[in-house]
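As the work plan foresaw, our protein records have gained a structure token line. A representative record is set out beneath this paragraph:
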Amino acid sequence: MKMVLSQNASAIRPLNLYPWVYISLVFGASLALPDKACTFKVALQNFQTIFSWELKNHSIVPTHYTLWYTIMSKYEDMKIVEDCTNITRLFCDLTGLWDNMPETYIPRVVGFKGNTVLVSCIDSVFLPMNMTLEPPDFEIVGSADHINVIVKFPSHAPKTIDVERLQHHFYLIIEQRSEEMVKKHKPRINGNITGDFIYVMDKLIPNTNYCVSIYFEPKNLGTITKSPLKCALLPGQEPALGMVPPPENVRMHSVNLKNVLQWEPPAFPEGNLTYTAQFQSYNSFQDKCKYTTLTECDFSSLSKYGDHTLRVRTEFADEHSDWVNITFCPVDDTIIGPPGIQVEALADSLHMRFLAPKVVDEPETWTMKNFYTLWVYNVQYWKNGTDEKFQITAPYDFEVLRNLELWATYCVQVQGFLPDLNKTGEWSQPVCEQTTEDETTPSWIIAIILIASVFMVFLLLLGCLALVWYIYKKTKYTFAPGNSLPQHLKEFLSRPHHSALLFFSLPPSGEDEVFDKLSVITADLESSKQSPGDICSLGASSQQESLQPVSEEGTQATGHSDPPTSPVCL
């Protein structure tokens, strides 16, 4: 397999790709080659160069991928990335390989299903233009009139990355939000960007809720990826009479698009508090939960797509606190719950059926799969009692694990996975089943049983035909008996010398054949005046007379006259 790929990849040389790359760099567009079937992305996450791809045709679902690349300026053949060969994920860590910012890299991704190539994608990547910087992790600590923003960079950067040089291409932005006000801070970072970096946002108003987001902004036109907002209510003096504090720790809890806004009650000594939660609809806010004593409000009925601005405040008598705002996108921010799984063991295989998590406030047949363009299952299984786990990707709701060890117990877990968003769900509980012996009947036994069955059916039909023929003969003899020869004629014919005379003697040559006429007369016992014995005796005497020898003159006199008729009584 590697040899075939090597031949295919080496056929695409930098000299052939150079005109395309030159045009793409001049016009600021990505390379558009004839076999471009994927969308490539490059991101720098905690100083790690992560290359990812997404298939444009979602009906094509390879089971594994292999990544090749070459560098435009070196005029070399494509080479394989060893750590990204026959992988099931849709991304590859290229740290140490793609670290020269001014370079143009030409990647090629080949997708397989078994040994069949389903898709082959090629494109060019110019890092200063195509790379996006993922925002770093950070924390905020609020004081009376300021907030400390602690940006957590990696403790050390890879040797191949010049962090100081990266600052010539990107700005670090700390965005401050309060009510309807947005302020951008561009902190100046001297030296290497490693370890924790602390930035102070001062001159803030006590008892005010502030939200902070961090991102990298490219100096030229490029993609911006913002971090989620983190909010803090600045402490201040104890609320005076008539001053109501806002809710604390406002957050959205969303699992399988069940979206519930939650918060905690503030410290307030005056009495019981109520809350009002609203959502923004076009240019105005509408109430969802009004004057509720609960510390949560269900927003599951909102559209599952797009960003929603929600807010909540505390109320006491005629007083109320300031609003606390959060922004939430259901399909992007919800947690994908564990799917259901049904496992059946058949011989040396496990047949699995997956059930995507259901969604509330939707038709019964709607699941989480209906809200995403591309949904697959990550399946991991292992032999019970061992630590080695195997993982496969199942694009459909049914999958079979074959060629397992007989009479062994295997455990299976499954989770939902969104390849286009690189988002995973929660793992299901393990389901364990024991494989069994192969109970499939051999083909030679089936053939013998089939032949024996056909033979038995043939004998049964033959017996039925014989029975029908026997019944037919018996019935015919009973209702329509046939005529039979009299007993004295049967005795006459049974004599040996008569039989030889009748059947084997030939008449003399030159003489005509002499024969007697035989008439069969049925005697009616009821109407006849004579007894059957008289009639039969009379016939016998006449027969004896006809059998006596005659002279030659008599024979010649008769000539060709008809012989006398002998009566036969029945």
Observations:
- The mean pLDDT is 78.
- The radius of gyration is 52 Å.
- The first helix runs from residue 2 to 10.
- The longest strand covers residues 104-113.
